[in-house]
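Good morning C.,

I know you're traveling, so I'll keep this short. The sequence:
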Amino acid sequence: MTGTDEELVSRTSARLNGLRANSFAAIVMVLVELGLGVGVNLFATLPSTDHGKAPFSAFGRAVTGGPVVLAVHAVLGTVLLITGVSAVVRAVLARRPAVIAMAGVALLGIIVAWLSGARFVADMARGASLAMAVATAVSIACYALVLFVVPARSPGGR
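The tokens, ready to paste straight into the viewer:
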């Protein structure tokens, strides 16, 4: 192997390790988010002033005027959007089409859950709550698949 080949293998290995770490962090964050969401759904009283508002307006009110658990849930959901974008970028840089697809679907799940959460705050729709749960499950499954598919070590043994 030439020096250039070794450098490429090393760079690819670092990118894949970063993607694995990113995916594991996303799983942990999504699980915490799931717990917070269940807590909000079962125990928090959402302000009636938020009912009927547009989703983004309801999101803003959830962060600034909702119960603390709802505010933490909304902020963590937004951080998860950044985490999801990071995973997609890492997958693209690693040039693994299947992993790009998995990270993309996981990000889509996070986006659907975020938008459904904003809709839930706005109108307390049961369908929005179900959409959040299903999208969360899809994201967890995709990030777990990334951990399963991406090798822990590069083919070069580094």
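Safe travels,
E.
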